[in-house]
Write a structure and sequence with these properties.
Elements lengths: L17 H26 L1 H37 L3 E5 L5 H12 L4 E7 L1 H10 L4 H5 L9 E6 L5 H12 L4 E5 L2 H43 L1 H9 L4 H44 L11 H32 L1
Antiparallel strand pairs: 1-3, 1-4, 2-3
């Protein structure tokens, strides 16, 4: 009699909960590391405040120079780059000749505006200057020529403005062209040097901020060397042990970035009064511009990344030494 065999039971399928459980444990440890690192920083307020202050002032310096450079650039555009060129016509030129020359210049694509200043307008300006009123009244006739105030089109290079000046020199009836082109070229060169200096300063101070965070994390890891050794012995991975220190670097960088932004805003407020008086002296033609909003938002994020990078570099090296010990 054949024994009936029981049907073979199917093996249970592999559990699919291992993935979600692993992700849940990973997320919980990240949240714990985030809170734990903040509590550690709060437990030593003096050291944390000093680290944040050093980083904050280091990051605020490039912002201050960027603010200053941007406003100098804006002032140069207002007072220098867009300054009109004075074209003095020969004394033999009358009003008709001045109108003809002005019409020829208005047709050029590199000229934005041409204004004719008559000899009477020039005489009136000199009469209003202190010390010239008596001398002007003693003259029998007006010796001043017609003058064309030529405004170049904004955004042109120094070479294009030089070409315009040369073309005006060659026009018939022109006696003299007065322009501050060499002054503008020197100003452009100085602005280029200033831009490069601010970029180099920002890189150097960012490296300094990274080193400050790294040193702080190094001291923290050394003070907990025994605790870290126990965690490594019982099977804790380096990434598991390192994670709270990475979040500590992020916290330090984030707070330092916020402090740098606050210092930059305070600098803007401190400069508001003097700039308002300067603008009044130039009849409102000079304006003060603050730091752009996108930069104020990016600085704390970049600072947090610097803090994370400094903590990662130092913690990786310290944990390798702890594992080898």
């Amino acid at each position: 009699m054949n024994a009936t065999r029981e049907p073979r039971r199917a093996e249970p399928a592999p559990s699919k909960r291992s993935g979600p459980q692993h992700f849940s444990a990973w997320r919980e440890h990240h949240l714990w590391s985030l809170a734990s690192s903040f509590k550690r920083l709060r437990a030593r307020p003096l050291g944390t405040a000093l680290t944040i202050a050093v980083m904050g002032f280091a990051l605020a310096l490039p912002l201050a120079f960027y603010l200053l450079l941007g406003n100098v650039q804006r002032m140069s555009d207002t007072l220098g780059r867009n300054q009109s060129i004075s074209v003095f016509l020969k004394s033999s030129q009358n009003a008709g000749g001045a109108e003809t020359a002005a019409a020829a210049l208005r047709e050029r694509p590199d000229v934005a505006e041409v204004t004719i200043k008559t000899p009477k307008d020039g005489m009136d300006e000199l009469s209003q200057m202190q010390g010239f009123s008596g001398a002007m009244q003693a003259l029998d006739s007006n010796p001043l020529p017609f003058v064309l105030q030529v405004q170049p089109r904004p955004g042109q290079s120094a070479e294009a403005v030089d070409a315009l000046i040369k073309a005006m020199h060659d026009m018939p009836g022109v006696d003299l062209v007065q322009d501050s082109g060499s002054w503008r070229q020197r100003l452009d060169a100085l602005m280029s040097v200033g831009t490069r200096a601010v970029s180099v300063l920002a890189i150097l101070l960012s490296i300094a901020a990274l080193l400050v965070v790294g040193n702080t994390i190094r001291v923290d890891i050394q003070s907990r060397s025994e605790e870290i050794g126990v965690l490594l012995l019982i099977g804790g991975s380096r990434s598991f042990v390192r994670r709270p220190y990475l979040y500590a670097g992020i916290w330090l960088g984030l707070f330092a970035g916020v402090l740098a932004v606050a210092l930059a805003v305070l600098l803007e407020l401190a400069m508001a009064g003097p700039v308002a008086r300067l603008a009044a002296a130039y009849d409102g033609s000079v304006t003060f511009g603050g730091l752009p909003a996108w930069l104020l938002l990016v600085v704390p994020l970049v600072s947090a990344v610097l803090g994370w990078l400094g903590a990662r570099l130092v913690s990786a090296r310290q944990l390798r030494r702890a594992a080898a010990a």
